[in-house]
Write a structure and sequence with these properties.
single chain, 701 residues, mainly alpha, two-stranded antiparallel sheet
Length: 701
Amino acid sequence: GRCLTWRGEVSGGWAWSDHLSCRSLSWVERFIGRGVSYPGEAKPPSKRQKHRGRWLDRGLRLPKGWKYVGAEASHKATEDAIYKQTGHKIKMSGEASGRQTWVFDPSFSGANPPAFEPSLNCNSSDLLFRSQQLAAWKGPKPSNATPTNSSEACKKGIEFYQMLQCDDGHFAGDYGGPMFLMPGLIIVCYITGHDLGARKAAMITYLRNHQQADGGWGTHIEAASTMFGTVLSYVSLRLLGVPSSDEQCIVAREFIRAQGGALSCPSWAKFWLSLLGVHEWGGVNSVPAEMWLLPLWFPFHPGKLWCHCRMVYLPMCYLYCSRFQNPSKHTDPLLEQLRSELYVTPYDKVQWDANRHTCSPLDDYSPVTMFQKCAHNLLAFYETHLALWKLPPFSFIRKAGIKFAISYIKAEDLQTNFVDIGPVNKTLNMLSIWADSGHTKTHEFYMHASRLDDYLWVAEDGMKMQGYNGSQSWDTSFAVQAVIESGMGENFPQLCQKIYAFLERSQILSTEVSQASVPMLYEDLESRKKYFRHVSKGGWPFSTSAHGWPISDCTAEGLKGMLGLLPLKCVDKVCQGRYEEERLFDAVNVLLTYQNADGGWATYENNRGFGFYEWMNPSEVFGDIMIDYSYVECSSASMTALEKFRGKHPNHRSAEISSAISRGAAFLEGIQRADGSWYGSWGVCFTYGCFFGVEGLMCAG
């Protein structure tokens, strides 16, 4: 395994791997059996969630006028909107391909979808987007005749879905669901004074639609009410202008107070409330920036965390250690009202430190360990009781940690064209940039503002914040593989040509536009070392090239899609040999460097940490977030992509590919459950996991 064979580079006289994998202990798994990536068996019935949500149909309709705008047109629309609103000129950076946004145009008639009915299905059906695409389609339409065989059914399906394809070649759609994302955006825009304009009404519609019969909101739209979802959604409605006397606000407030008030929120909610100025930092557990100054050999280092965890707690540590305070905290009457509405105890009587660990049972999905609580209690003396961080030499160390944190935040912004890895660190980074500049709106702030719409999606239930800036590359890669495997690729030349154009533009740091952009400057070895980044060039993202973070299975599916497209005659007409083999080789290099010591593949990076990192998980609502585990889906996708590539390029790194597939198969066999199934982590659990597990083993022979 990779504990015995090292791939990497030499820089400054020492060995540097493309990852920070903790291979030094990987040999232990050979003796203890299944490693940390084994997801475990089923929870006993006593520990399973028992409460369920219930929704009411309120007859609410989205205001008309919302129009989908994508790719280059979306860049121009955003630049014009920022200039019209602020008078500040910006130039959007990165590839425009795949960008999907919504703009409000009162003159646009569009569709008039029915009122949203969450009691039947709390997921929307993308009626606005689909109706707009179908209305714009000028080509042939599917026959109304019922198919008589599978080939006719397949052909009719492709005929329909090509009508939904965007002009730049990708397939767009709703990637919403979490209820705790949009409140962060609303809070940051409220603090910084960035006007959300017409978005406000659409956001209110969404929040009203997803409120449950008990007055609360879930952590996500299918979940029963939690304090995490309820407090943040209630605060959002109030910040958007809904009065406290509103009927839905009244029942929400009753739910909150019945659960003990905002003191029983999980830690992430307390953090957001503290930023806004309706909670005190003394009631928030420490997020020390000093951790970034630890040496890399130290057993626990934040650079070894799973990247989503790392990139969220990065701006959190900056804002916490800077003790950020909303400038309007003591002058805004609305904040004064919220401080009265959210707590059952008068605000000035709250014992903040005594409630740092308080969390409602509704939210305690991943209970904080006693080890982590003890660590937080010790840090409380450092932060609050003794305030050592204010005294030398600790004050110097803290300043150094804060300085590194803001430099890392700025690097993440530039590497992702201000999209950032996800919606939480997107808004926290935006606030950090505003705070670092002395509460002023700099050019970097407006660049952040220009990317807010990347995360916002409009459907018949309202405007929501998505869990990513979309799933463009992922969805499109699977779609084209289905078309090609049906044998009908040549029958749909326009469809395949547009998909080729999209996938070609989406390959990270591989086009003339992306290679001339700022993110390319961070691809050198020294920059990747400094900011803990895996190699990116040649990979495919989950969403867009501008996002800039490659993922193992997204790279694999993108590679398989491209390998299937290139031999098509219709694609060759537009490609004409311009897609170089080196770009395929770059993708293979990314996949080979992604393989972990256990033989499996994780998501964005190698597994850098250890299982004991989960003992230090400070979040009550998210489990298994501390390290990047190997997964059946990522492993199988990478194996099948390498196998397909080897079939077309048998002489390129053949021995390495054979070894990788063989070790991947051993990993898949090792994490198969006793009942024969595989636990899927990134889709509909067992169905998803099993089809990947089977395909992975089949490709390995």
